[in-house]
Amino acid sequence: MSETYARIIIDISHEKVDRTFDYRIPQHLRQEITVGTRVLIPFGKGNTMRKGYVVGITAKASYDPDKIKEIGGIVTDGVSAESRLITLAWWLKEQYGSTMNQALKTVLPIKQKVKPKEKKIIRSLLNREQLSNALKEAEKKSYKARVRLFFALLDNPVIPYEIAVNQMNLSASAIKPLIEKGDICLESEEIYRNPIQIESQEEKRLRLNPGQQIIVDSFNRDYSEGKRDTYLIHGITGSGKTEVYMELIQRVIEDDRQVIVLIPEIALTYQTVMRFYGRFGNRVSIINSRLSAGERFDQFERAKNGDIDIMIGPRSALFTPFSRLGLILIDEEHEGAYKSETVPRYHAREVAGKRAQMEGASLVLGSATPSLEAYTKALRGEYQLFRLTERAKKDSSLAEVSVVDLRQELKDGNKSIFSRKLQMLMEERLRKKEQIMLFINRRGYANFVSCRSCGEAIRCPHCDVTLTLHNNSRLVCHYCGHTIPMPSKCPSCSSPYIANFGVGTQKIEQMTKKMFPQARILRMDLDTTKGKGGHEAILSAFAEHEGDILIGTQMIVKGHDFPDVTLVGVLAADLSLNTPDYRSGERTFQLLTQAAGRAGRDAKAGDVIIQTYSPDHYSIVTAASQDYEAFYRQEMAFRRLMKYPPASGLLTIQFSSRNESVLTETAAAAGAFATAIGEPEQVQLIGPVEASVYKINDIYRKILYLKQENYDILIKIRDQIDGFSENHPELFEQVLIQYDFS
Ligand code: ADP
Ligand code: ZN
Ligand code: ZN
């Protein structure tokens, strides 16, 4: 009888996880040992027994079978969180096409050999009354930073120094006089690197409205009956989804189970996080990209030890090693950031579904603009669908949205970036001291430089993109970071007539200043938010009325509540429409709907102006009428026609290489192979074509698209192509192949 071997990692948290050892599986354990099983193995010279995890099973040992030892036994003290995560890693590898190492590195945080740092905290020395007086005093003197601090201290006697500096925008020089006066003191604490520690727990529970109550009741009924399901909450911005999440969390932690809450990084603001802390206190932890690897590791340790019940964070929080997981919540479920950009290219929604199923947990998705994927599943009955169609706060109503045709503006002789209607409303709001948001719906900016004589744009020599002008002095590549000073003449024809084109946030800021010299303007983009907490600082400055107009990209449409914003202007809605991506219509609808949701959060009526060159495009028309259903129907018709997800499965295979001719040959060979095996399976094949950015960092990229309704067929084909590449090392030696399912 043939032998089978187990590939085992000894210590998942310490060393590099890619070190595995082969062990023979004894006959009597063959049934029981699978990926994720914890086993005892004789290790090292002395053959001391150590614990390890099985991460793979194979018939072919990776070294001399005579030297391979046998597994000693199975560890039986229950299924650990790690075992489950390793099984999940196996699923990731199979599903998305990666190596086991890549999958393991995704699900397991690696121990950093650093000592827990000392953390500084700010402790208030004042009692509540003194604090209110200090607050009033600071308000009178317009010490904005102090107001923020005192205000926060009213609810939380202790505030981490880091939060004060990064998120509340307090400088050391603002803190020092307060210490000298004895208002606050600064203490150091040796702590588990817990990024936030708050002592009080004051957030009151609101009385739910009927729409919210229906969701909570349904969930609770299912939960009590032991039914674990997936729920989609389609609720407009401000309809009280977060309030519902908190009730569901409450139910689950009362049952002594744990909860993971995913929130896109850009929406993980102080305001949002504080709501969860206010309700659940120190049982909450948070991870975000600003944490060091060590801090992240510590958060996961605390979760494993059962010190916390709720983990809030972006995509990677999904792998929190809770052992009694009861609920996974995904807010803003439609967000692109839930899709991993590195291998394995998983989508958090799908992995959450798998993890919830493995661990007997419920899954709740929420969005004002559900992804087509989620909504389709809900309509098919795979998810329970709930709707919240009204704003939760009394007196708050939806904004009035109007679409302005920019072609008509031009015809009528208005060449400004502001339509006459937007200009008029801006003047009026500035007069009334109400706030305005100007929104450019694109990632980054397109401030490229081109020559008026020969028409050439200045491009990155390593990447197939134009360089972007920063501060009128440097040209920067947004893909590889390549930087050159702004040239004084055209590199191609030496003409001195070169200038920047395209609308960037900086440019808009200048034009706004010119048009409204009396207005105070804040700008938020990659440049102004570079520093730690820069993003948060600008948002809170705007919330404190330190500006009348906030200009920015999609970053400004998330997170904060600005009750005094009564006008939102979308300057050119077409920008996100004209991207080479089948999701551009969906993204445009989402961005516009979100932008519209920013106006009129409070009692004051709001206006939203959408300026566009394509006023008849359904994404714009339906966003203006705030009609998700109508958008969904039209977009799905397009997806069905074009066989794009979710109407069909789409496998994107990317080939990349430094050697262009080798790349062309290899991609063509793989394409021919895929056509041959795909045809009988009715797979539709497109390509290989050049990627929309063909060259990045001197690496050329080609893409092959495979469409087929049945995912399993695509996975089968992927495996065959993988086999093909292994059997043809001569073709693939210099070519990297990557898979992406959507
Ligand atoms: P969403 O997450 O859908 O954007 P939130 O939960 O943030 O909505 O609620 C929006 C606002 O309405 C918040 O200020 C919240 O405190 C308030 N709110 C939510 N539910 C209720 C309720 N049942 N009664 C009164 N106010 C509510
Ligand atoms: Zn030129
Ligand atoms: Zn570049």
TrEMBL record:
Zn(2+) 1 binds at residues 451, 454, 490, 493. Residues 222-388 form the Helicase ATP-binding domain. Pfam families: Helicase_C, PriA_3primeBD, PriA_C, ResIII, Zn_ribbon_PriA. Initiates the restart of stalled replication forks, which reloads the replicative helicase on sites other than the origin of replication. Recognizes and binds to abandoned replication forks and remodels them to uncover a helicase loading site. Promotes assembly of the primosome at these replication forks. Residues 485-639 form the Helicase C-terminal domain. It catalyses: Couples ATP hydrolysis with the unwinding of duplex DNA by translocating in the 3'-5' direction; ATP + H2O = ADP + phosphate + H(+). HAMAP family: PriA. NCBIfam families: priA (TIGR00595). Belongs to the helicase family. PriA subfamily. Residues 121-148 form a coiled coil. This is Replication restart protein PriA. Keywords: ATP-binding, Coiled coil, DNA replication, DNA-binding, Helicase, Hydrolase, Isomerase, Metal-binding, Nucleotide-binding, Primosome, Zinc. Its EC number is 5.6.2.4. Zn(2+) 2 binds at residues 460, 463, 477, 480. Its cofactor is Zn(2+). Binds 2 zinc ions per subunit. The gene is priA. Component of the replication restart primosome. It comes from the Bacteria.
